[in-house]
Amino acid sequence: MSNYTLAPVGKGNGLNEIDFVLADGDSWSITADLPDDAHLFMRAMATLENPVRGDYFYCGTRLDFSDYRFLLPYKKKIGYISPDSALIGNRTIEDNLLLMKSYFENARGIDEETEALCRYFQIEDKLNLRPAQLDREDLRLAVIIRELLKHPEMLLLERPRDFLGPRKFALFSAVLKEKTRSGIPLVFLTSDEEFTRDFAGREAVISRGFLTCS
């Protein structure tokens, strides 16, 4: 992101002419004086917010925000897991996961990779349920599986422990460590000091709408 400016949301200041570069192997911790600005930054990284001005480059290609369809090839390369990530409510969990696979890969039917992830996170017996029938932990796990199935080129993660008990969080943490060892860049937002110690390589601080990297 170059000279990137975004309008304020909620109680935030917005983001003002920020510069941020994410490279293979990077792991960034994001902190902010206002939660809304931190969330805005993560949504901007996920191409979910249109800038007031400035440029977003993905592997050297300047993204065009004039039509959401121009962004779709890049959205599928970005895994974004946040507490407000949602599933399609009138579809079963299996349908939600199959829709993701069919959209990005023209796949039909549940495959071995999807089955393996569901077994790993222990929701394989809940695939015929709808989101309203699941507790918050299983909903979070379904979102995690959905984003992992995209085989993202970068991972964005907000509040990783939210809705996950210790056992399921340990499973998720193990997957993240494997992904980061493979070189996939990670950007995360958390107040969890242990998680930050485990994963942070660099830190970016948002204060009064400006970004400082260290």
How would you describe this protein?
With 214 residues, this protein is an alpha/beta fold. The chain has a domain at 1-77 and 186-214: P-loop containing nucleotide triphosphate hydrolases (Rossmann fold), CATH 3.40.50.300. The chain has seven helices and eleven strands. The strands form three sheets. The protein has a six-stranded mixed beta sheet with strand order 7-8-9-3-10-11, sandwiched between helices. The protein is globular, with a radius of gyration of 17 Å. The mean pLDDT is 93.
CATH architecture of the domain at 1-77 and 186-214: 3-Layer(aba) Sandwich
Low-pLDDT residue intervals, each spanning 5 or more residues: none
**Strand runs, count:** 11
Order of helical and strand elements: EEEHEEEHEHHHEHEHEE
Q: Number of helical segments?
A: 7
Descriptive tags:
6-stranded mixed β-sheet; 36% helix; 11 strands; Rossmann fold; alpha/beta; 3-stranded antiparallel β-sheet
